[in-house]
Design brief:
Blueprint lengths: L2 E4 H8 L12 E2 L8 E3 L39 E2 L40 E2 L9 H6 L5 H12 L4 H7 L14 H27 L5 E4 L2 E3 L22 H6 L2 H4 L3 H19 L14 H20 L1 H8 L2 H21 L9 H8 L2 H11 L11
Parallel strand pairs: 1-3
Antiparallel strand pairs: 1-2, 4-5, 6-7
Helix pairs in contact: 4-5, 5-8, 8-9, 8-11, 9-10, 9-12, 9-13
Bound molecules: zinc ion.
Length: 383
């Protein structure tokens, strides 16, 4: 699911368009799985709704390509700038906790295990890599190869996602093979929705309850820990406009639980990452590339608060799960790793500043810190 705004659509709403009401957020709904994105200049795009995606079906995709050993052979913890070597022998059902550079003392209220003290997140990105040769060639019969090659040059972590999903029946639907500029208009949607589909199909193939694509070498398998309906945090949201909340925290979407929240976050974070390193190729006047990633980190903070206050047994259970804690920490740091790249392009955010402010509110950061047992800041490093 993606949510997007359109300024043109906003004008219609302000003029009394009967499409619905919002506090100025002006959602452009009716898109992918119930949502889409916020566009500054387009109101005519449509994408499949969530209903159109049926991740319960067997994946309509081909086997791994080019000798790929398959998805079960890799589960490598993220790289850490100064975190030492990650464990090399992680089983496919566990995440190896990071090593820590300076062995600083964990927070006093640290959770189970030995929480990280100092570490930073990074993954390979090459935002200045020349892609002009592939861009000029784009649009031929091998447009998928060109597209994946372009993404791989700038963001290797996204290559496996697109490569494994390239024969998915939705891939073409989320793409524009006619022109590179058109493709760039679709890339966020493609990455977002194919992350949803990868997560669903990969878990099915692996016999897991869930999977979350972070990078090609980091697929996380969260436990079946549904928690409570995310609609319980709807009234806690203070960010206006609240279009994301209206879409994701009410109705059928609102009945979804904790892992679904992590799944949605993973999709928004991945789409933000893709555009962060390819923003120079985007020619549009602006859309909400950053908004969803920070909105969902904020929602995760609120969800953890609600869990602690109203569902303490779930909170304790989730907090005791190393995979959950490791994943949440990785995603927080990862968003802060990509944001500076994305921030080079003012066109890649609409209301992201509001969500970032909320995400960084001391009481909200403290909620995540309490859960993780680390101190966090506006950076890709644990403080
Ligand atoms: Zn989504």
């Amino acid at each position: 699911m993606r949510l997007r705004f359109s300024l043109a659509f906003a004008v219609l709403l302000l003029a009394g368009c009967p499409f619905g009401e919002d506090e100025g957020g002006l959602p452009r709904l009716g898109l992918m799985d119930g949502g889409g994105r916020l566009d500054r200049d387009r109101d005519d795009r449509t994408a499949p709704r969530d209903d159109d995606l049926d991740p319960t079906l067997p994946p309509p995709i081909t086997p791994p390509r080019d000798g790929d050993a398959g998805p079960d052979d890799e589960l490598v913890p993220p790289e850490y700038v100064d975190g030492g070597a990650p464990g090399a022998d992680a089983g496919d059902d566990e995440l190896v906790p990071p090593d820590f550079a300076d062995g600083g003392a964990p927070a006093a209220d640290a959770g189970p295990g030995s929480p990280p003290a100092t570490r930073c997140y990074e993954e390979p990105v090459f935002p200045s890599a020349d892609v002009s040769d592939l861009v000029s060639a784009y649009g031929g019969s091998d447009w998928k190869d060109d597209l994946i090659s372009i993404v791989a040059r700038r963001w290797p972590g996204g290559e496996r996602l697109l490569e494994e999903q390239r024969d998915d029946s939705y891939f073409d639907r989320f793409s524009d093979s006619s022109s590179w500029s058109g493709m760039m208009e679709e890339l966020a949607t493609l990455v977002h929705e194919e992350t949803h589909l990868f997560n669903a199909y990969h878990a099915q193939r692996e016999g897991r309850s869930h999977s979350l694509y972070v990078r090609g070498d980091l697929i996380v398998y969260p436990p079946a820990m549904e928690g409570f309906a995310r609609s319980e945090i709807h009234s806690m949201v203070t960010v206006r406009p609240s279009s994301y909340a209206s879409l994701y925290l009410t109705g059928e979407q609102g009945r979804r639980g904790f892992v679904a929240l992590l799944d949605e976050a993973s999709c928004y974070i991945n789409e933000m990452a893709a555009l962060a390193v390819l923003g120079d190729q985007y020619r549009g006047s602006g859309f909400s590339s950053r908004d969803g990633s920070v909105a969902f980190l904020y929602y995760i903070e609120l969800y953890l608060r609600r869990a602690r206050e109203a569902h303490p047994e779930f909170w304790e259970m989730a907090r005791a799960d190393e995979t959950i804690r490791e994943h949440l920490l990785t995603q927080w740091l990862r968003v802060h790793f990509f944001l500076p790249h994305s921030d080079r392009f003012s066109s890649l955010g609409i209301y992201d500043g509001d969500f970032r402010d909320a995400m960084h509110e001391p009481e909200n950061v403290a909620e995540l810190e309490m859960f993780l047992g680390v101190r966090l800041g506006d950076s890709p490093c644990v403080l």
